[in-house]
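tool_log.txt
---
The assistant was asked to compare two proteins side by side. It first ran the structure predictor on the initial sequence, then on the second. Raw inputs and outputs are pasted verbatim so the downstream comparison step can read them without reformatting.
(1)
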Amino acid sequence: MSTTKPTKSQKGVRYTEAEKKEIIDFAVAYNATNGRGGQSKAAAQFGVSQLTVAAWLKGAGVAKPSSKKTKAPKAAKKTKAPKTAKAPKASGSKSGTRYTAEQKQEVIDFTVAYNAANGRGGQSHAAAKFNISPLTVMAWLKGAGVKGGSKKSVGKAKKALKTAKLPKASVSGNFDDKLNALLALRKEVTKAEAELAKLVAKFNAAKAAL
């Protein structure tokens, strides 16, 4: 089919299938290159009405090009990585931890021995050493009948010092011998205070049973 425009109107002219296909292919190719406008260009190029071209395109199953710009698909949102679980902070006090009678007695003995040697402060030092609450230490001391740092407990410790047998120092009396004697004395004090605490606890228990 010639692409030359006819001089006369093409109204009533019957086109062959080959001619129709040529016009349809032209419109489709134009739309593929330019996005739209193939229908009107084909009508002008081949001297047919735009309605005729539209009808042929529709009959051939060619959809009319959309005037709306196709939006690019949105990028998928980044999924946030799950937060890592924080490790539990180590607490200074071991609340909820159950202690054995031996562990409690160890804390009590330490407190009593510290107070015997320094006068007071055993409660706070025991709390720091064994990583427990000062209130817990105080409760254990109270349960054992021991008042941490009181004049009465210190007086008992001094009395135990007097009755304790001191190790004999060597004749030379040098610094090392004196230091060894002091350490042995402190050991005796700790032992005496521990025994005293046990006796007081037994006394209080017997008293409470009356």
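(2)
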Amino acid sequence: MSGVLTILLYIAAAALFIVLALGIINLVRTDDRQASRSNQLMRWRIGVQAIAVLILVAMGVAAGAINLGS
């Protein structure tokens, strides 16, 4: 289980890097849709970050570092 979560975390980190890079590239564009695209990329980045945090919490639970019960 821990190995699967580690792989998922690497995938989430790579996806986060890609979305962040696309957002930075979008900053230098000057077309009419730049603002709308920037807003959409920001939503994607927040979603991918939320998924990465959930994976980190799942890794903590799987490793026993986080105890959800009493």
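---
observation on (2): The chain has a mean pLDDT of 90. Residues 27 and 35 are 9 Å apart (CA to CA).
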